[in-house]
Amino acid sequence: MKNRKYYAFLTALMMMCACTGCGSNKEMTETKKTESPVMNGIVADGGASAAADAPAAEAECAGEAVADAAGKEAMRSAALTADELADEGFAPEMYAGDAAPGAGDVLPDEGDPGEGDPGEIVPEEPPVVVEPVDPSPREMVSILTAGEWKDHENWGFFANLVNNGTISFPSFGVDPTQRIAVTVKDGSGNALPNASVQLLDAGHNAIWNAVTNKDGVAYLFETNGRTGTAVSATNPGGGSAETAIEAAASDSQGARLVSDRSASLTIEGSAVYYPDTQVMFIVDTTGSMGDEMFYLQSDFAAIAEDVGTDGTSYSVRFYKDEGDAYVTKTGSGFTTDVAQIRSALNAEYADGGGDEPEAVAEALSEAFSSDEWSTESAKVAFLIYDAPPHYGKEDMLSAAIEEASRKGIRLIPVVSSNGSRETELFGRAAAICTGGSYVFLTDDSGVGGSHLEPIIGDYEVEKLHDIIVRIIQQTQQK
Predict the structure, then answer these.
(1) Are residues 470 and 387 in the same domain?
(2) With bands split at pLDDT 50, 70 and 90, how would you rate the model's confidence at 263?
(3) Strand 196-200 and strand 206-211: pairing?
(4) If 78 and its partner were Cys, which of 9, 118, 379, 473 is the partner (CB 3.0–4.6 Å)?
């Protein structure tokens, strides 16, 4: 990269020398004083030399404005620091005069320009195209890109993928295919958030529990061969209701198709909105997660600032795998103290792992069974990971997802670089069953390793920061 920058620098200088006599050099020098000491020295000297020949130079440069502008931009892109010049073989004594680079000096000619030549520098090798410079850590955070996909809002697309065999479930014990979408409203047709909703079997036993979001919508699921016959809902503001549901449809061979059933209930009660919001980050800290760890460490304070801390508390948990420094670890309980969460994040670093599966089951089980979750809050959890759970943990995983749904915790998987198809399908299944959405990093930023393209429809590429902030704000009910 240094060689490319050096030759680009020389090429840019040649372009600038073509207009050395132009009367605009002084003005350009002033605007570039804070950009590069070496560049300022070159341009300043050229401007001084041009002063004596200004009348003739003005006429000559009138037709060279385009080249001059291009030279300025190339100089800006190819600027070399004094250290980088030293790396390329230049030393301070190579500059004319006794001052350090940047004090009005010029680089010596590499050839014999002849009498009256303004000083042309000829590179030993042909100039090359200037490639983009790798972003700084702060720039990396600001440009990290991702997409968000909501299977609930694209249910027909999802059903076609499953029914034609493109993807299949259950994934690690989690089966999102037999869905019943439930809407709960008051007598005036307004949404009733935070209502407890149940899917009941013929014996009136609960198969699945969920909580309506601020739009009065919840999702119930038939799992492990259990069949639902009715749906009930209880409003925290008073009142309850129950309604029967139809059986799931089957194909010509008797196999159950993806369910597109729904139910609506009306309760004569008042809506109850929770002013508090709880946000948990569950982070894989194994060796492959260095970029993602750095992102969260660098961007968390900005996320909290954009969301607003009024009524919003945060918690962070970490996990690795068996044989590592730890399997699961609580970084901080729920708090509105952003500095406390940032400190917990900054204390962690990515290492360990070694095989693809990680302790996802243990992490989710402990996170969702925690008694830190308030019964009177809107809740969302971000699972930031790049590897699937271990096989053999299906019961633990399905129990954890059911517990999240029962408590009204929306799980948002954020799949990072090098994720596999197994990682994607588990994340989508968990998001569907908790009323969440699926988030995945993309290659558009050019940062990090390769990112798996999920099997989804059209989506918008956004900054990951913006997606996380939006999801939290959509969760909030205040």
Answers:
(1) yes
(2) very high
(3) antiparallel
(4) 9
Question: How many whole angstroms separate alpha carbon 122 and alpha carbon 16?
Answer: 13
Q: What are the start-end ranges of the H helices in 91-183?
A: 137-143, 155-163
How many residues would you count in the chain? Answer: 478
SS (H, E, C) 333-372: EEECCHHHHHHHHHCCCCCCCCCCCCCHHHHHHHHHHCCC
Secondary structure class of 258 (helix, strand, coil)? coil
pLDDT 10s digits, 209-219: 999 999 999 99
Longest dimension (CA), the chain: 104
User: Quick check: 476 pLDDT over 50?
Assistant: yes
Rounded Cα–Cα distance for residues 402 and 425 (Å)? 17
Question: Measured between alpha carbons, how far is residue 430 from residues 170, 173, 424 in Å?
Answer: 10, 10, 10
**Same domain flag for 225 and 285:** no
113: in domain: yes
pLDDT, mean over the chain: 80
Residue 271 to residue 195: CA distance in whole angstroms = 9
Looking at residue 131, its pLDDT comes to 55
The least confident of 15-19, 114-118, 310-314, 406-410 is 15-19
Q: Alpha-carbon distance 233 to 421, whole Å? A: 36
Report, as an integer, the average pLDDT of 22-46.
35
Q: DSSP letter string over 163-226?
A: HTTSS-S-BTTB--SSEEEEEEE-TTS-B-TT-EEEEE-TTS-EEEEEE--TTSEEEEE--TT-
Domains in the chain, number: 3
| CA distance readout (Å), 368 to 281, 341, 388, 395, 439 | 12, 19, 18, 14, 20
Assess whether 281 and 378 both reside in one domain: yes
Neighbouring CB atoms inside 10 A of 268's CB total: 13
In DSSP terms, 185 is beta-bridged to 191, 266
pLDDT tens column, 220-249: 999 988 999 999 999 999 999 999 999 998
Which CATH number goes with the domain that contains 349?
3.40.50.410
Is the N-terminal amide bond of 170 cis, ω within 30° of 0? yes
Q: What are phi and psi of 55, to 5 degrees?
A: -60, -50
Say what the pLDDT of residue 128 is.
57
Given a contact cutoff of 8 angstroms between Cβ atoms, the answer to whether 366 and 336 are in contact is no
